[in-house]
Amino acid sequence: MARRNVLITGCSSGIGLALAVKMARDEQKRFKVFATMRNLAKRAPLEEAAGARLGKTLEIKQLDVCDEESIRTCVNSIPDRRIDVLVSNAGMGLIGPIECQSIEEMKTVMDTNFFGLVRLLKEILPDMKKRKSGHIVIISSVMGIQGILFNDVYAASKFAVEGFCESLAIQALKFKLNPYKLHHKSLIEPGPVVTEFERKVFEDGMKMDLSAADKETAEMFTNIYLKNYKQIFQSLGQSAEDVAEHTVKIILAENPPFRHQTNTLYTPMTTLKYADPNGDLPIDIFYKMVFHHDKVFSASLNFIKLLRWRSRKSFDLGKPSQ
Ligand SMILES: NC(=O)C1=CN([C@@H]2O[C@H](COP(=O)(O)OP(=O)(O)OC[C@H]3O[C@@H](n4cnc5c(N)ncnc54)[C@H](OP(=O)(O)O)[C@@H]3O)[C@@H](O)[C@H]2O)C=CC1
Ligand SMILES: CC1=C(/C=C/C(C)=C/C=C/C(C)=C/C=O)C(C)(C)CCC1
């Protein structure tokens, strides 16, 4: 099979960087990776991780998903504009009470996470339709399925992504865009992942001016959400490399599902969404976990953290856990 051109957005850090390097290092050399980032001054970590693959199976290009001209210039620079696999990964988070966030900040999140994908597809989808081939892989989130306390606008941006893709997927099936697969679109839905995203969101949350919120809301954000934030990432968090591994499996799968959740520790929570068409179940359970059973919730997180630490330790000793 010919080498597939893969364009990935947001490769300066995190999932994008890990995925670009993993695909560029493919032993069977099945991919030519165009690893893009909005600010090329941030290319050093990717260059270092790519090592000898740089200039061979991996090329770095500038692309800002909020700038149509930058997307067009990047796509035009690829031979025959041929993109076989597009990975829409660039994104940003935003946490806190909405009273303390400006509409401008919220628009930046929607512009990056949702309109960024729309701009990419407006440029790339027509070529895929003409060729009747192509696979679009979107790094969505568990928050594309389920809202989480103090993530209102971020969750809305990922819900928008999911609704957009679900609608387009029906049309795409008609064009049989992917000759190897039934679906030509795949939504990857990670839970918490330990990346720059986590650090930036937490730091911004800690610095947030909470004076526009009432006392109870401000305390809820500081003493419940921010206080537990690190623990949630330590207990349930995946690594960027882990999410990259899931993503490559989906790209190579014969018949990948439309949606793929990467974190089995998180699936019991997202399952609540599908279990109750009235929508009350997940809201009720999340409410109870946060406000009534916070000690049990926190103890469970600690227990999971301990189990994961022990299983890693026994792997380190060359003795896989049972
Ligand atoms: N970390 C997590 O817990 C989870 C993350 N996700 C999703 O995964 C994706 C990747 O995030 P992650 O790797 O964790 O976080 P990182 O912050 O490490 O990476 C985000 C990447 O997106 C880039 N980016 C932001 N805005 C733009 C833009 N306008 N144009 C091009 N690139 C841009 C960043 O570039 P720059 O360095 O210039 O800012 C960076 O390269 C996001 O879509 C996120 O929503 C989903 C579930 C969980
Ligand atoms: C599990 C859980 C919580 C927090 C979840 C978090 C913080 C998830 C973060 C997901 C991310 C960062 C996805 C990115 O796209 C709450 C609401 C505290 C209480 C209820 C159970």
Automatic annotation (TrEMBL):
One GO CC term, this protein: cytosol
InterPro entries, per database record: 17beta_DH, NAD(P)-bd_dom_sf, Sc_DH/Rdtase_CS, SDR_fam
One Pfam family named in its UniProt record: adh_short
GO function terms (MF aspect): estradiol 17-beta-dehydrogenase [NAD(P)+] activity
Highest taxon in the source lineage: Eukaryota
Assigned keywords, A-Z: Lipid metabolism, Oxidoreductase
Chain residues that bind substrate: 141
Active site, renumbered: 154
Biological process, per Gene Ontology: estrogen biosynthetic process
Residues that hold NADP(+) according to the record: 10-38, 64, 158
Membership in a protein family: Belongs to the short-chain dehydrogenases/reductases (SDR) family.
PANTHER family per UniProt: RETINOL DEHYDROGENASE (PTHR43391:SF9), RETINOL DEHYDROGENASE-RELATED (PTHR43391)
Protein's name in the database: Retinol dehydrogenase 8-like
Species, as recorded: Nothoprocta perdicaria (Chilean tinamou)
Taxonomic classification: Eukaryota, Metazoa, Chordata, Craniata, Vertebrata
